[in-house]
Amino acid sequence: MTYMNIEQIHKYCIKKKGVTEDFPFNEETLVFKVMGKMFLLASLDSLPLQINLKCDPEKAIELREEYESVQPGYHTCLPVSVILQHFGNAGVIF
Predict the structure, then answer these.
(1) What is the C-alpha separation between 83 and 40, in angstroms, rounded?
(2) Per-residue confidence at 89, pLDDT binned at 50, 70, 90?
(3) Which residue has the higher pLDDT, 11 or 58?
(4) 13, 52, 63, 81: which could form a disulfide with 70 (CB 3.0–4.6 Å)?
(5) Total domains present in the chain
(6) What is the pTM for the complete model shown?
């Protein structure tokens, strides 16, 4: 298990081929897209740090059952998503 802060998440995502970043909703929600499709939203002002990821529906259920920090995604336009959060200062589990 790897704990990542927002800077590490940014570095990981932005180096992927075709990835762009934007703030289409507000100044606190960083969005990563590939080919114009959102795959990760990061709430920059939330403590603990939370990210919302696009996820396969069956994998999302499996992850929620295995990890307390994985919660169902909500209030998002991603069709299937999960929210990852870490309850300390280290960052999110990614």
Answers:
(1) 10
(2) very low
(3) 11
(4) 63
(5) 1
(6) 0.75
